[in-house]
Write a structure and sequence with these properties.
It contains four helices and six strands; from the N terminus they run αααββαββββ. The relative contact order is 0.14. InterPro entries: ARB_07466-like_C.
Length: 194
């Protein structure tokens, strides 16, 4: 386990792994009962995105949400999204920004209000590439497809923004920025509505 993970996060990861919990997704597997909710972001064998806008099974969702804590100061909506994404982020070996980039100072209101979090893909300052880029794209696709469910305001990833202003199109629109981190080429920024 890396040094930058705090003990509470390590504990929560242990709980999630011990309970065999899953987080988000929408691909039904052959071994699932009808209506069951899956983590599969991608149908790896087919190369398809696997993104759907399905709702979670209430019992599964409640157990998963109870097992993972939330960063301090985030809104209830952001907490729900954070918890839902947590296990898949862990499986992909991606970390919520260790600098505490959920609630914190920023020139825009999303982080200060606790309505946004950043999910780091690799190392801050270095653009995601290879598998990290592919997985980041899959997560972005899932967020865009599930924007209604989690009441998202916007998602920024790899120099593009996805929001109601883009009709949540998969192609997004260019995000005015400069530099790797400002252009979100090393992390996904996701914000929920008020």
């Amino acid at each position: 386990m890396t040094n930058h993970l705090s003990r509470p996060i390590v504990f929560l990861l242990s709980v999630v792994v011990a309970l065999g919990l899953t987080s988000f997704g929408g691909n039904a597997r052959a071994d699932q009962a009808p209506g069951e909710w899956s983590v599969d972001l991608v149908a790896e064998s087919s190369g398809e995105s696997g993104v759907t806008d399905g709702m979670a099974d209430e019992a599964t969702d409640d157990v998963a949400l109870a097992a993972v804590g939330c960063p301090s100061g985030v809104t209830k909506k952001m907490c729900r999204l954070y918890k839902s994404m947590y296990d898949s982020a862990k499986k992909g070996k991606y970390l919520w920004d260790k600098r505490g980039r959920c609630k914190g100072p920023d020139r825009l209101p999303y982080h200060p209000e606790g309505r946004a979090c950043d999910l780091v893909y690799g190392k801050i300052g270095k653009p995601a590439g290879g598998d990290a880029l592919k997985r980041g794209n899959r997560l972005k696709d899932w967020l865009v497809a599930n924007h209604r469910r989690f009441q998202l305001h916007h998602v920024i990833w790899n120099g593009k923004i996805y929001s109601s202003r883009t009709n949540w199109r998969a192609s997004g629109r260019p995000y005015s920025c400069s530099g790797t981190t400002d252009c979100h080429r090393d992390h996904i920024h996701v914000a929920v509505n008020r």
